[in-house]
Amino acid sequence: MLTTPKIDLLPEHLIDQIKAGEIIERPGNLLKEILENSVDAGSTKIELILKNNGLDFISLKDNGHGMNFDDLPLAFSRHATSKISRFEDLYQLHTFGFRGEALASISAISKLQCISYTLSEPEGSEIRIEGGQTVGHSRRMSAREPGTELIIQDLFFNTPARLKFIQSQNSEKQFLKRVIYSFVLSHPEIEFHLKFDEAEKEIYLQAPSILERIKDLVPKVSLTSILHSERSYDSNVFSIYLVPAQYKTPVKFQYTFINGRLVTDKQYPRIISNALISAFGHDEFYYLSFFDIPTDHIDVNVHPTKTLIKIFDQSKVISLATSTIKDLKNNEKVQAPRSDFAPHPEQSINQEVPQNFFGHLDFKQDLVSGRQEYNMEGIFSPHRTALDESGLAHLIWINGFFIKNIESTYIAFSAQKLIEQFVLKMMKTSTPTLPLLVSEPFDKNGIHLDSLENLSRAGAEFDLLGGTTYVLRGIPEWMNGFPLKEIISTIIYRKSFKDILINDQDWSSSTWTDMINQFSITELYELKVAANLENLLKEKLW
Length: 542
Known about the structure:
Blueprint: H1 12-23, H2 27-40, E1 45-51, E2 57-62, H3 72-75, H4 102-108, E3 111-117, E4 124-130, E5 133-140, E6 147-153, H5 169-186, E7 191-196, E8 202-204, H6 210-217, E9 227-233, E10 236-244, E11 254-258, E12 261-262, H7 267-280, E13 285-292, E14 298-299, E15 310-311, H8 314-327, H9 363-369, E16 372-377, E17 392-398, E18 401-406, E19 409-414, H10 415-426, E20 433-443, H11 449-457, E21 461-465, E22 469-476, H12 484-492, H13 509-516, H14 521-526, E23 530-532, H15 534-541
Parallel strand pairs: 1-7, 11-13
Antiparallel strand pairs: 1-2, 2-6, 3-4, 3-6, 4-5, 7-8, 9-10, 10-13, 11-12, 14-15, 16-17, 17-18, 18-19, 19-23, 20-22, 21-22
Helix pairs in contact: 1-4, 2-5, 7-8
């Protein structure tokens, strides 16, 4: 006879060990947590010693504000924190730690000693914990400057099963270095002392800027070789530092930070890599990239390690990053590979206007009464085309066309035709999918399923709801920056691209740049996307 198993509450020490497994998978995870605590404490100097990749011994000493005697045990209790007091605080965070889980997890799977001093108490405090059990809590009579010293020994001594998942010594050391140098590079205001086993101590003094800290870490690189670009849009800021990859560095750094937090989401390296390839023809750079986003537009409480972050308007932020990186291609210090968009000398740009290129368009009337002028940087740049040495594209929008004056030679781009040819080209390739934070619904009636399937193969994600509505959950990476409702409708309902409305609010200059850069000038002529208008305009207007 079967009996119903009794439900019991798990003992606290087992809960702590389970939580520790979520947060502290390897020594590098532990190191990240305690370094974040030191930064949160306002430290300007951090000394770090590691033995056997942190499994045997980790010592961290800082000069932060420290902890009082009564607060010290609470620091190692689960869900004890000074950072939040209500749910809404989770969306107004300006510190690394806030959940009150990391120190409790560390103390549950190691032998730990913490000594701390503050300005408010004449002597220091000490606590010793082994496997989650407090074995000592006392005052220290000797006084010193404020700060905290944390000594962690025998990591995983009471959870040996976790040791089976520790990787090779080299892999663990590289991961530790990746964590350490992410703080060294992103916090130039902090002095770091680093020592691995018996190796010589590394010292990084306070630096006035990230540029100077990069120079400290990569001594042979000159400041003029480090590229930096920063742009902002709608309260979001993105900045990036690039270092050519031929220089020797302690760690091959390619870091992305969101509001100061190192993130591990794989989509960001992919986005940055694609933007670098688009700008320079390769992605052989070290980089530091920083997003600064309003705190109420991100959610950092989606994973115990806080390295995966949700962004409210992700597509806008990604577009900002892409356009910022592409600004770097105009920097004269980098020799970007030649693009096939620049015509070879034997290719004449004074080709005849393709027949029926303009249809019934009345140029003279439109130029007189219907034009809007835009100054859109980035459509052409010195590194992408020989047609324009100024790098500034002065475009005139005329009922479906962009007209550009290039050294008294006029070239017209059929905007809708460019979109159509770009979509046709990109639909033949599969690109990574960008998830949408807000899904787009489309009525099933009238949808051409083969077009839907082709779009799905290209990287889009659809769900069928209730048998009547397709919901767009994700888009191909190349579609980022498009007005999605309009472009997806055109594809799946097989509408005419001529019906797509163009305005400067929905279509950014970087979107046009991305599309144009997919074709050589010869292809643009052959596809009737572009035409030379010098002679025609002279006849029609002058």
